[in-house]
Design brief:
Radius of gyration: 16 Å
Number of helices: 7
Order of helices and strands: EHEHEHEHEHEHEH
Largest sheet: 7 strands, parallel
CATH class: Alpha Beta
Strand content: 15-25%
Structural class: alpha/beta
Mean pLDDT: 90
Length: 194
């Protein structure tokens, strides 16, 4: 269905206040298993992370978790995944997640999810990777983020072309199709996105 074999999903270590977001994470996991797309994620068994990992596993799919040792020792590491990489730092975690993934989908989450999102966007802006990034805008969750991006552009701190670093989808059903259709930004030599 798509050239991507591994999708990194960034999402919350809690389930959030809206049950429909948890349902959407479960549905995305089912779709990934059906489409034979391997999940790469933060390795937790709690929150939306645990929901999507369990859904992929329940559907017979493959799940690769990457978790720092200090979080694993707090007993949040998911022992039922296909592969669990225990790394020494958050930096190592994020780096390995990028390395093992062909594309990224960002579900709702907190500070950790925002940290991962900003880092993967920045790395794409700096041309350290050129993999598709999708914000899964469930129930308008990412509207404040999109407003912030527009504000940064209006204030002259972000080049307008940076809006092309990511795609916004409004349902998990769009994620697999968006991975296949995501435009590849033209990587120029003048650093127009820097």
């Amino acid at each position: 269905m798509t050239a991507s074999r591994s999708l990194c999903v960034y999402c919350g270590s809690s389930v959030g206040a809206k049950p429909q977001i948890q349902d959407a994470a479960r549905q995305l996991g089912r779709l990934m298993a059906e489409s034979r797309i391997r999940l790469v994620y933060g390795g937790g068994r709690v929150g939306l992370m645990g929901v999507i990992a369990d859904a992929v596993l329940d559907g017979g799919g493959e799940v690769v978790g990457i978790i720092p040792e200090f979080l694993d020792t707090r007993e949040v590491g998911h022992r039922g995944v296909t592969e669990l990489h225990i790394v020494d730092s958050m930096h190592a975690r994020k780096s390995l997640m990028v390395e093992l993934s062909d594309a990224f989908a960002v579900l709702p989450g907190g500070f950790g999810t925002l940290d991962e999102t900003f880092e993967v966007l920045t790395w794409r802006q700096l041309r350290l990777h050129d993999k598709p990034i999708m914000l899964v805008d469930l129930d308008g969750y990412w509207n404040p983020f999109l407003d912030l991006v527009d504000h940064l552009i209006a204030q002259g701190f972000v080049h307008p072309s940076c809006r092309d670093l990511f795609t916004v989808v409004t349902s998990v059903e769009e994620v697999v199709a968006a991975v296949a259709q995501a435009p590849q930004p033209a990587v120029g030599t003048k650093g127009e996105r820097l």
